[in-house]
Amino acid sequence: MLVLSRQRDETIMIGDEIEISIVDIRGDKVRLGISAPTRIAVHRKEVYDAIKRENAQAARLGMTDLDSLAQTIQPGPARRQQRQDTNKAPAHNPAASLGATTVRPFVSSESSTLSQDKNSA
Protein backbone atom coordinates (compact mmCIF):
# COMPACT_ATOMS: atom_id res chain seq x y z
CA MET A 1 0.00 0.00 0.00
CA LEU A 2 1.29 3.43 -0.93
CA VAL A 3 0.90 5.96 1.88
CA LEU A 4 1.06 9.66 0.95
CA SER A 5 0.86 12.84 2.98
CA ARG A 6 -1.25 15.64 1.51
CA GLN A 7 -2.58 18.94 2.74
CA ARG A 8 -5.85 20.68 1.97
CA ASP A 9 -6.29 21.55 -1.74
CA GLU A 10 -3.55 19.13 -2.82
CA THR A 11 -4.21 16.35 -5.31
CA ILE A 12 -3.15 12.79 -6.01
CA MET A 13 -3.34 11.36 -9.55
CA ILE A 14 -4.02 7.69 -10.26
CA GLY A 15 -3.08 7.04 -13.85
CA ASP A 16 -4.10 9.76 -16.28
CA GLU A 17 -7.81 9.77 -15.49
CA ILE A 18 -8.40 9.60 -11.73
CA GLU A 19 -7.81 12.65 -9.56
CA ILE A 20 -8.21 12.61 -5.78
CA SER A 21 -8.22 16.01 -4.06
CA ILE A 22 -8.11 16.80 -0.35
CA VAL A 23 -11.12 19.10 0.01
CA ASP A 24 -11.27 19.61 3.77
CA ILE A 25 -9.65 18.43 7.01
CA ARG A 26 -11.59 18.73 10.29
CA GLY A 27 -10.23 16.95 13.32
CA ASP A 28 -9.88 13.27 12.47
CA LYS A 29 -12.01 13.50 9.29
CA VAL A 30 -10.76 14.18 5.79
CA ARG A 31 -13.08 15.09 2.89
CA LEU A 32 -11.95 13.82 -0.48
CA GLY A 33 -13.01 14.90 -3.94
CA ILE A 34 -12.71 12.19 -6.59
CA SER A 35 -12.80 12.93 -10.29
CA ALA A 36 -12.96 9.83 -12.50
CA PRO A 37 -14.52 8.80 -15.82
CA THR A 38 -18.11 7.57 -15.56
CA ARG A 39 -17.06 4.07 -16.67
CA ILE A 40 -15.15 3.71 -13.38
CA ALA A 41 -17.38 3.06 -10.37
CA VAL A 42 -16.37 4.94 -7.23
CA HIS A 43 -17.86 3.73 -3.92
CA ARG A 44 -17.05 3.86 -0.24
CA LYS A 45 -15.70 0.45 0.86
CA GLU A 46 -18.76 -0.41 2.98
CA VAL A 47 -21.10 0.38 0.06
CA TYR A 48 -18.95 -1.65 -2.34
CA ASP A 49 -19.02 -4.66 0.03
CA ALA A 50 -22.81 -4.41 0.33
CA ILE A 51 -23.17 -4.31 -3.46
CA LYS A 52 -20.99 -7.42 -3.81
CA ARG A 53 -23.07 -9.27 -1.17
CA GLU A 54 -26.35 -8.34 -2.86
CA ASN A 55 -25.06 -9.39 -6.29
CA ALA A 56 -23.84 -12.73 -4.95
CA GLN A 57 -27.18 -13.35 -3.24
CA ALA A 58 -29.14 -12.40 -6.37
CA ALA A 59 -27.03 -14.77 -8.48
CA ARG A 60 -28.01 -17.73 -6.30
CA LEU A 61 -31.36 -19.11 -7.43
CA GLY A 62 -32.82 -22.01 -5.53
CA MET A 63 -35.40 -24.50 -6.77
CA THR A 64 -38.09 -22.73 -4.74
CA ASP A 65 -37.27 -19.50 -6.58
CA LEU A 66 -37.58 -21.27 -9.93
CA ASP A 67 -40.82 -23.00 -8.91
CA SER A 68 -42.42 -19.74 -7.80
CA LEU A 69 -41.25 -18.07 -11.00
CA ALA A 70 -42.73 -20.88 -13.09
CA GLN A 71 -46.07 -20.50 -11.30
CA THR A 72 -46.25 -16.75 -11.92
CA ILE A 73 -45.35 -17.02 -15.60
CA GLN A 74 -48.03 -19.09 -17.29
CA PRO A 75 -48.24 -19.50 -21.07
CA GLY A 76 -51.08 -17.83 -22.95
CA PRO A 77 -53.73 -19.79 -24.88
CA ALA A 78 -51.77 -19.72 -28.17
CA ARG A 79 -48.64 -21.17 -26.52
CA ARG A 80 -50.72 -23.83 -24.70
CA GLN A 81 -52.22 -24.91 -28.03
CA GLN A 82 -48.76 -24.99 -29.62
CA ARG A 83 -47.50 -27.21 -26.79
CA GLN A 84 -50.46 -29.57 -27.20
CA ASP A 85 -49.83 -29.76 -30.95
CA THR A 86 -46.13 -30.37 -30.34
CA ASN A 87 -46.88 -33.22 -27.93
CA LYS A 88 -48.93 -34.90 -30.69
CA ALA A 89 -45.91 -34.82 -33.06
CA PRO A 90 -44.31 -38.16 -34.01
CA ALA A 91 -41.67 -39.36 -31.56
CA HIS A 92 -39.11 -40.12 -34.29
CA ASN A 93 -38.64 -36.40 -35.09
CA PRO A 94 -36.71 -34.77 -32.21
CA ALA A 95 -36.98 -31.32 -33.82
CA ALA A 96 -40.77 -31.53 -33.72
CA SER A 97 -40.72 -32.02 -29.96
CA LEU A 98 -38.94 -28.67 -29.73
CA GLY A 99 -41.63 -26.95 -31.77
CA ALA A 100 -39.51 -26.83 -34.92
CA THR A 101 -41.04 -26.89 -38.38
CA THR A 102 -39.78 -29.32 -40.98
CA VAL A 103 -38.53 -27.47 -44.05
CA ARG A 104 -38.59 -29.23 -47.39
CA PRO A 105 -36.54 -27.90 -50.32
CA PHE A 106 -38.53 -26.22 -53.06
CA VAL A 107 -38.00 -27.71 -56.49
CA SER A 108 -39.78 -25.96 -59.32
CA SER A 109 -41.06 -27.91 -62.30
CA GLU A 110 -38.88 -25.69 -64.47
CA SER A 111 -35.64 -26.83 -62.79
CA SER A 112 -36.58 -30.49 -63.09
CA THR A 113 -37.29 -29.96 -66.81
CA LEU A 114 -33.87 -28.33 -67.24
CA SER A 115 -32.09 -31.23 -65.56
CA GLN A 116 -33.96 -33.69 -67.80
CA ASP A 117 -32.92 -31.69 -70.89
CA LYS A 118 -29.26 -31.77 -69.80
CA ASN A 119 -29.41 -35.53 -69.24
CA SER A 120 -31.00 -36.07 -72.68
CA ALA A 121 -28.32 -34.11 -74.53
Account of the 3D structure:
The protein has helices at 45-59, 63-72, 77-87, 94-97, 109-120; strands at residues 11-14, 18-26, 29-35. 0% of the residues are buried. The termini are far apart. The chain is an alpha+beta fold and 121 residues long. The model has no long low-confidence stretch (mean pLDDT 79). It contains 5 helices and 3 strands.
Task: Label this structure with key terms.
121 residues; alpha+beta; 43% helix; 17% strand; elongated
Provide a compact summary of the structure.
The chain has a three-stranded antiparallel β-sheet, with no helix packed on it. With about 120 residues, the protein is of the alpha+beta class.
Number of helices: 5
Mean pLDDT: 79
Tell me the span between the first and last alpha carbons.
87 Å
- Approximate strand percentage: 15-25%
Q: Report Rg.
A: 33 Å
Spatial sequence of strands, sheet with the most strands = 1-2-3
Low-confidence stretches: none
Specify the structural class: alpha+beta
Number of E-state strands: 3
- Biggest beta sheet attributes: 3 strands, antiparallel
Please write the string of helix (H) and strand (E) elements. Answer: EEEHHHHH
The general outline is elongated
Helix content: 40-55%
